[in-house]
Amino acid sequence: MASPPPTPRSPARRTRRPSALLIVGFACAVAILVEVGAITGCFGLAGWHWGSQGPTAPDLNPYGERILAITGNTTYFGPIHGYFPSLDDTNLCGPKCPELPRQWPSDGILPAEVGVFFYYNVTNTANILVNLSQPVVSTSGPVSTLFFLETFCCYTTTDPPYVELIDSAIPASPGLEFGLEGYAYTTEPLPTVVSGGYTLYVNFTSN
After folding, report:
1. pTM, whole model, 2 decimals?
2. Closest CA to 204 of 90, 128, 126
3. Is residue 188 part of a domain?
4. Domain, as residue range, for 33
5. Nearest-CA neighbor of 70 among 108, 32, 120?
């Protein structure tokens, strides 16, 4: 955090009272300095602002790349398949895509990030209890591991929304409907791509 420039050190107090001639001379000198300062833009500090000035956040999206789609897909293990239809080859970003990722500056602990939030609903159409894994993300373009993904569970009619970070599989009883919140982000600058943006592939497994 920048500090205001230090003020000049005050001269030592004189031990004797100055004469009237010295006082007049001093006043004239001050008047001249003030006038010169006004003409030259306050002694060269016209563009200087008092107060704190935080560090400039890095531009993590210098080419203005957008998120074109967030595609969900599920790998099923076990005798039945396709019971999470909203996660199979669907765009979890919905009408928000293409979306320009938002940038968050560093808070002094976490580094600066660029990323997107997205929300989607999940329904277990199977007639048995199944487990849905926490998803992993891969990214189109030159760096498939560019983005990281955090997923928060769950919005239902009985639970508060999106308060729990998923770190294990979600048990889904028959007919259960719930909502998930995803946050895909990176701390690295987004390289430019010919497609004009990135597709995120969000992959689940279930058994």
Report:
1. 0.70
2. 90
3. yes
4. 15-51
5. 120
